[in-house]
Write a structure and sequence with these properties.
By secondary structure, the protein is an alpha/beta fold. It folds into two domains: 62 residues, 2,3-Dihydroxybiphenyl 1,2-Dioxygenase, domain 1 (Roll); 62 residues, 2,3-Dihydroxybiphenyl 1,2-Dioxygenase, domain 1. The chain contains three helices and ten strands, in the order ββαβββαβαββββ. Strand 3 and strand 4 form a beta hairpin. The longest helix is centred in the N-terminal third of the chain and has 11 residues. The chain is globular and about 50 Å long. The model has no long low-confidence stretch (mean pLDDT 94).
Length: 132
């Protein structure tokens, strides 16, 4: 029997847990799934945008990690947030103060626009085209 795999969690570095929670939960509307104190200033903080993959917010713990905040993908889009209503989500995010780096554009795969989180990570907000 072949195992079924699915991407469960990815880890963006954040300056501190509460700033990460403020943005992902407070601004984007993700669900705070877990916030467990692990001792020594570490926490297990999981936020979920909807269903499927989650984010495990990782507080940068030393200088090499601090300089990597927002640069984990060397300036490229590293995260892709799918929506079923681009116009509504874009308007809600804009009203909440999210910084979009470009105008929305139609691509063969759907409607998309790049935004930046407060930590410098680039995200695609995308509404995929419906299959034909």
């Amino acid at each position: 029997m072949t195992a079924t795999l699915a991407l469960a969690t990815v880890t963006p570095l954040v300056p501190n847990y509460d700033e990460g929670i403020d943005f992902f939960v407070g601004t984007l509307g993700f669900q705070l799934v877990e916030d467990t104190d692990l001792g020594d200033g570490k926490r297990w903080v999981v936020v979920l945008p909807g269903k499927d993959a989650a984010l495990l917010l990782a507080k940068a713990s030393d200088e090499s990690q601090r300089v990597a905040i927002g640069q984990q993908t060397a300036g490229r889009v590293g995260f892709f947030l799918k929506t079923d209503n681009f116009a509504d989500t874009h308007a809600r995010f804009t009203a909440a103060g999210v910084t979009f780096l470009e105008e929305a554009r139609a691509e063969p795969y759907g409607t998309v626009s790049v935004f930046s989180d407060p930590f410098g990570n680039r995200w695609d907000l995308i509404e995929p085209k419906a299959p034909v």
